[in-house]
Backbone:
């Protein structure tokens, strides 16, 4: 057995493959992991005699806890004895692989586990809820493909990797014209999308990372993408979730009518108790909760208590609307339970669309153009800046990864023709891509919309019908992040300012302030994002080998986040809080709201075993947790 592996009684050694989810295309590494000869199906962990007893809030103050390695050394043995059948590793090389994701952080875990199924997840939670009293530093952090940008999947304790075994697409069905699918959290988005395509449907909140992320990771992050302007986030498409709660049992959580809610809360289990107490919190603080709701359309910050009820409390009690805890679990980053199965709704694929491209040469026009375009109910309004366009012009290989030689040649020809002839070699400050569908255009035409836009600051707007040209604009937009890396290959695009959102009408003023701050800190950043939502992604190029970078990140985050809030925006549109934004949530929410978030987290996780330090009670020091390599 390799050094660092856990010794267990009566074991056999078999090889399993652990995916390295820290890179865009996960590599595979074969390691030896101890597994039991007889694979017990039932746990030997004894449940508490009383179901989910009320306890006073546990203040573990994890940031002050001294590292106690004994608990992590013993946890593998305890899991095996309880019947855990999946992979377990403490191999140094594997731990190093799981120390990073796509964020700017590096935190070394102590143990990696790969549950084979729901029962393994339940066993892990049951073991932890017992042993955390002896070993307070034990915790469980779910991890999928590791493509997150906020550090949400990083931990100094136990990683629960769901991508190895829990990746089955279990069901796709159509009833009364609605197609839904069910899958485990480790199912790759691209695999689900491929199967859905056969049914002529898709999942509208698809993120830009859909080729490399999982469904579970996207739901836990409450991800969104281009079509979120019309269709919203992942949470808006969740039908139901199977979630393992703090008692180590799994519950199916879905929207409930008032009658169903009343039946549930009579039961004696944690789900029932949580539902009752969350409802009480909302009832007692209804006005404050609604007032705390961010003004921007997109948000993944905090626990969205304002979305649990889709009608006022009084209306719900009269039988209107639903009570939906999936709204809290979607986007919770594994901090209040572990998702083991997901059922989501889909939307028919719409091939009857029109693309309007609007080059904006005057920075002060951008907000006005976007606001006007929104009047036509577009599916999306995507955006990329002059730096992105210039990088594409200078790096023609950007399209070769996704297109064949002939198609790539056509895209490049369209790009250079557009720049040299149509734009007279002058790069627009921003390029807007507006997608309209004919069903919402009604009696209007795309050319009619263009005419209106030209009269309202979109002077160069036009309908693009040529396929290579349409593909060219979308290829540049999709390649924005990878293109940003090419500005200086000796540095790394730093994901910590990339999720700010402001009301679209404030975009111009916000951009002006952003440019001032970039100049102040002498950094460059290519900008892209979801213009219709006023949601921007930009990644300053920083050298993580430099000793001044931690202080620079700290100061920049403070200044940029303050500017976003100044323009009635927020700091967290779709990439979630994680390590980077959790300490800054007080900029968006008052103390009362943050206290309500803490109450909710404690209701679900009284022993603080689920991914501590994210969403509430930040414990990872941002400067000390930064990666040291580019």
Residues:
């Amino acid at each position: 057995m390799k050094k660092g592996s856990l010794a267990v009684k009566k074991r056999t050694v078999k090889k399993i493959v652990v995916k390295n989810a820290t890179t865009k295309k996960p590599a595979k590494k074969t390691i030896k992991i101890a597994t039991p000869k007889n694979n017990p199906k039932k746990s030997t962990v004894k449940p508490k005699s009383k179901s989910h007893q009320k306890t006073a809030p546990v203040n573990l103050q994890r940031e002050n806890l001294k590292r106690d390695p004994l608990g992590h050394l013993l946890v593998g043995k305890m899991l095996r004895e309880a019947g855990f059948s999946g992979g377990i590793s403490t191999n140094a090389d594997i731990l190093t692989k799981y120390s990073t994701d796509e964020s700017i952080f590096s935190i070394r875990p102590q143990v990696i586990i790969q549950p084979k199924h729901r029962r393994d997840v339940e066993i892990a939670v049951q073991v932890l809820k017992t042993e955390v009293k002896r070993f307070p530093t034990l915790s469980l952090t779910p991890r999928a493909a590791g493509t997150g940008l906020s550090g949400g999947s990083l931990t100094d304790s136990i990683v629960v990797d769901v991508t190895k075994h829990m990746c089955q697409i279990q069901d796709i069905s159509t009833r009364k014209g609605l197609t839904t699918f069910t899958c485990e959290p480790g199912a790759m988005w691209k695999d689900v999308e491929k199967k859905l395509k056969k049914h002529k449907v898709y999942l509208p909140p698809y993120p830009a990372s859909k080729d490399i992320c999982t469904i579970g990771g996207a739901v836990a992050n409450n991800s969104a993408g281009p079509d979120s302007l019309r269709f919203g986030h992942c949470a808006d498409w969740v039908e139901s979730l199977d979630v393992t709660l703090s008692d180590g049992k799994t519950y199916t959580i879905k929207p409930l009518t008032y009658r169903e809610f009343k039946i549930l809360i009579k039961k004696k289990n944690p789900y029932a108790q949580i539902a009752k107490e969350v409802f009480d919190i909302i009832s007692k603080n209804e006005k404050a909760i609604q007032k705390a709701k961010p003004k921007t359309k997109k948000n993944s910050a905090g626990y969205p208590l304002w979305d649990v009820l889709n009608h006022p409390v009084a209306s719900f009690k009269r039988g209107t609307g639903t009570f939906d805890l999936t709204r809290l679990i979607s986007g919770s980053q594994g901090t209040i339970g572990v998702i083991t199965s997901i059922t989501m709704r889909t939307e028919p694929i719409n091939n009857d669309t029109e693309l309007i491209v609007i080059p904006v040469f005057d920075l002060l026009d951008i907000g006005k153009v976007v606001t006007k375009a929104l009047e036509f109910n577009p599916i999306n309004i995507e955006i990329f800046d002059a730096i992105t366009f210039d990088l594409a012009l200078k790096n023609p290989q950007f399209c070769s990864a996704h297109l064949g030689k002939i198609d790539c040649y056509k895209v490049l020809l369209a790009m250079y023709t557009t720049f040299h002839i149509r734009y007279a070699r002058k790069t627009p400050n921003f390029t807007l891509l507006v997608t309209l569908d004919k069903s919402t255009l009604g009696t209007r035409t795309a050319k009619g919309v263009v005419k209106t836009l030209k009269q309202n600051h979109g002077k160069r707007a036009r309908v693009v019908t040529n396929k290579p040209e349409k593909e060219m604009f979308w290829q540049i937009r999709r390649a924005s992040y990878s293109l940003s890396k090419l500005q200086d290959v000796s540095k790394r695009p730093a994901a910590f300012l990339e999720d700010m959102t402001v009301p679209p009408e404030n975009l111009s003023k916000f951009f002006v302030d952003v440019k001032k701050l970039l100049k102040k800190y002498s950094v460059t950043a290519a900008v892209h994002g979801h213009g219709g939502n006023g949601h921007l992604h930009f990644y300053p190029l920083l050298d993580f080998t430099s000793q001044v970078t931690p202080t620079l990140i700290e100061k920049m985050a403070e200044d940029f986040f303050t500017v976003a809030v100044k323009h009635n925006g927020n700091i967290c549109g779709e990439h979630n809080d994680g390590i980077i934004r959790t300490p800054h949530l007080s900029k968006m929410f008052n103390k009362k709201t943050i206290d309500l978030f803490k109450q909710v987290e404690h209701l679900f996780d009284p022993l603080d075993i689920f991914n501590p330090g994210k969403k509430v009670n930040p414990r990872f020091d941002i400067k000390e947790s930064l990666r040291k390599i580019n």
